[in-house]
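Example record

One chain of 224 residues, shown exactly as stored in the release files.
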Amino acid sequence: METKYKIGYIDEDDKQVKKYRKRFRDFGIDIIGYEFQQGMSIEGLMEQVYQSEIDLLMIDYKLDESNKVQFNGEEVEKEIYNNKPLFPHIIFTNKREDAEDFVDDWKIIFNKAEITNKHEEDYDEDRTKHFIKTLIKSIEQYKKRIESRKNSIAELLIKGEKEGLNSSEQDSLISLQRELGDLDKTKKKEVPEKLISFEKLDDLSKTRKEAEAFLRSLIQKNKK
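Predicted structure tokens for this chain:
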């Protein structure tokens, strides 16, 4: 099946990553694993995650069992929440009760027993399909949130180029830009600062070439 989504899976056991990569392939999902090195910091791990351009992140709760790292899944979850608060992510664990003591949002905790190998006796295909649908729904909801804000910014920039923006629209453009930035603090803002300053908003025609270049890149991002 053609790959439609990329899901990152944080697990220090590479065998587990390979297991779910094989299992999810049938659903058009490519599982991306991450390299664990002895004594690696959480910052080093998150740098890999942010560079992997994934649609959703699965986090194994017990990461310190191999003694390669000194942190567990709840710390990874906090990093994601602080930097990409609405980005779809789940805690994927063998022992749900272990994670519940440390993860505030229990809705993101899923038991690995729900996704078993086809050859295991307790394999439930319907349960697996429901789990996959849950992940995909989370991915699509997030993409719609981002796309909605980008489209609104694009519409305001186009209007500003053609006829200018009133004070209310100027405020909306700046607010939308801030919202978009808050959704992903790991990337540069979608609109250059000089495009959303009040001085530039009063006369967007002076920055027409830059605005058009930005809009073209925005359209390309929305198509991905």
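Notes: Strands lie at 5-10, 29-32, 56-60, 89-93, 109-111.
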